[in-house]
Amino acid sequence: MNRKVMTGELERLAGQPFPLPEELQAGFMSTAMQKPDRPVKLACRQYWKLYGAAAQRKFRDAGELRELVDSGRAVGALQDVDLEIGEGEIFVVMGLSGSGKSTLLRCLARLIEPSFGEVLLDGRPLIGLPAAELMKVRRHEIGMVFQNFALLPHLSVVDNIALPLRIRHDDPASIRENVAEVIQLVGLSGMEARLPAQLSGGQQQRVGLARALAVKPGLLFLDEPFSALDPLIRRELQDELVRLQARLKKTMVFVTHDFSEAVRLGDRIAIMKDGRVRQIGAPEEIVTAPADDYVRNFAAGIDLTRVVSCARIATQPTRSEYAVKVPADRRIAEAAEEVARAGGPVGLVDSQGRLVGELDAAAILRLVSGGLYGGGEGAGR
Ligand SMILES: Nc1ncnc2c1ncn2[C@@H]1O[C@H](COP(=O)(O)OP(=O)(O)OP(=O)(O)O)[C@@H](O)[C@H]1O
């Protein structure tokens, strides 16, 4: 969708023309495949993974793979995926079971061979890299966190975390220092000598996270890391990850089938179905401008006020001065009380303090009651 269409949608929502300033519009730029707003850390192009006997060969072009999938002779676990993941972003891959999330993560991490296509880490192609080189990349530049924690049961917390560092022959002093640092970072101090069986699920996953971070990777792959945990602990670890990320600014590829988790964590989210990426966008973009009904269905069940910004449901200013002003990019949930207390419309201001719109309690109520897709048929689908 281009900017013109997007502005059209705002008009429909607000009931009147509302030309947002450039920098605010940029946040809403809706393309089905939004690009990162920063340098690219990891990218894949024309990425395919087929399963089945007929797929066990080299392919010359993508047409051959398409033909195998279309004729039902192979399962298209990944089909023609193009992605660019930005430096320091949490990039969430989300979709229902069987949509290809794990296959994508495993192909990107080079744990399994894709059938076709290329993957670039810091601009360097990883396909065709000699095995020893690839091993080096995996040991020094990539960290992995798995759903089942993948801890060795007979090793203590310290030894589990130190394992990848020992495998790559780091010197003992730096291992000690490194392990102590990550143990403190993930809040496991005092538990150094425990075995995995003496830890709760949440604590075990903290060990998994610490082990991945100890490698000091530029890139972290997390495959449903919190899915085995109960909801409260899961929430706690989500918050922990956000806290860690604010400090560490790693590039993370995070797989989940839980849309609310995707929205909470993702700088951008890729929504997958049948091995294909249906949409890539920031959480606000995904919920306010879903590319299709499959994506829209995910957005239907979440609390929009925590995702949608004030600017998104604003109308044009009707006066030049407002007693109460609110940053236009603030989430509705964070601004709602102030708007309610104002007793009338509040002014929305951009980062320069310029007036860019108006918001009142009625607009918030409309969002909460009718969702973004209007009332009546199809609402909240
Ligand atoms: N080793 C395999 N052999 C054959 N087919 C496979 C294999 N691994 C995955 N598939 C198929 O590839 C498709 C994508 O699977 P994948 O595990 O990537 O999905 P997913 O989105 O991660 O699912 P889940 O959330 O259930 O883990 C599915 O149709 C699956 O059945």
Automatic annotation (TrEMBL):
<dbReference type="InterPro" id="IPR017871">
    <property type="entry name" value="ABC_transporter-like_CS"/>
</dbReference>
<comment type="similarity">
    <text>Belongs to the ABC transporter superfamily.</text>
</comment>
<dbReference type="GO" id="GO:0005524">
    <property type="term" value="F:ATP binding"/>
</dbReference>
<keyword id="KW-0547">Nucleotide-binding</keyword>
<dbReference type="InterPro" id="IPR003593">
    <property type="entry name" value="AAA+_ATPase"/>
</dbReference>
<protein>
    <submittedName>
        <fullName>ATP-binding cassette domain-containing protein</fullName>
    </submittedName>
</protein>
<dbReference type="InterPro" id="IPR003439">
    <property type="entry name" value="ABC_transporter-like_ATP-bd"/>
</dbReference>
<dbReference type="InterPro" id="IPR051921">
    <property type="entry name" value="ABC_osmolyte_uptake_ATP-bind"/>
</dbReference>
<dbReference type="Pfam" id="PF00005">
    <property type="entry name" value="ABC_tran"/>
</dbReference>
<keyword id="KW-0067">ATP-binding</keyword>
<feature type="domain" description="ABC transporter">
    <location>
        <begin position="63"/>
        <end position="299"/>
    </location>
</feature>
<dbReference type="InterPro" id="IPR027417">
    <property type="entry name" value="P-loop_NTPase"/>
</dbReference>
